[in-house]
Amino acid sequence: MNDNDPAEIFDDATPLVSIEFDAFYEMYHQRYLDYARAQLSLSEPEQIQDLVEDVFAGLGMDWDRILQRPNPAGYAWGVLRYMVEQEHRQRGEVLQLVEKAVFMDAASSATRPVFEALEDGLGILQGISRLPARQYDALLLTRFMKYSTAQAGDVMGIKPSTVRVLVHQVRVKLDKKTLNSASPATAKERDR
């Protein structure tokens, strides 16, 4: 046996991971894990960890082809998002972080009665749950996970200016949703 021969050290079943993939893993692993934790409320935290590790394992196995794509980070984000959505559907879970944040925002409103504030919050939650994927992710990352627009853009594989546009679109949609769902008396009070 020759100690310098890699073929003898690694069998064919052990893929050699590239330096680029190692760097990608180091840069995005915690962010992907944070996103999955924000989206899922699995009974076992290890299941979330396993899901993210499965995403990275799949990406690592196909890394050379992924690098040939025009936007490798965007593709990888799409894979993570798909896997989280699949897990979410299988478990029939609600989007925990967003739901809690909207509830707390509504409940902490001191300018209106609590029930009216909660009703508005539930309307906003319903609006958030119907957002397109990119708008939802931009809102989740910037508003609820407190990422900067640059950090959100980096992890999603898009420009920070695109994140700003997506968040602005969400605000416009949610403002319209809130105004359209407001009762006539509530709308008159807001106009004063």
Describe the structure in brief.
76% of the residues lie in helices and 0% in strands. The chain is an all-alpha fold.
Q: What is the secondary structure topology, with strand pairs?
A:
Elements: H1 6-9, H2 19-39, H3 45-61, H4 63-67, H5 72-91, H6 96-107, H7 114-129, H8 133-144, H9 149-156, H10 160-181, H11 184-191
Helix pairs in contact: 2-3, 3-5, 6-7, 7-10, 8-9, 8-10, 9-10
Distance between the terminal alpha carbons, to the nearest Å?
86 Å
What's the total number of strands? 0
Task: Provide a count of the helices.
Answer: 11
Query: Helicity level, as a percent range?
Result: over 70%
H and E order = HHHHHHHHHHH
Average of per-residue pLDDT values: 75
**In this structure, how is the largest beta sheet organized?**
none
Low-confidence stretches: 5-14, 113-122, 181-192
Strand content: under 5%
Label the structural class.
mainly alpha
Choose one word for the global shape: globular
Rounded to an integer in angstroms, the radius of gyration calculated over CA atoms is 21 Å
Account of the protein in words:
With 192 residues, the chain is an all-alpha fold. It has helices at residues 6-9, 19-39, 45-61, 63-67, 72-91, 96-107, 114-129, 133-144, 149-156, 160-181, 184-191. The protein is globular. The model is unreliable at 5-14, 113-122 and 181-192 (pLDDT under 50).
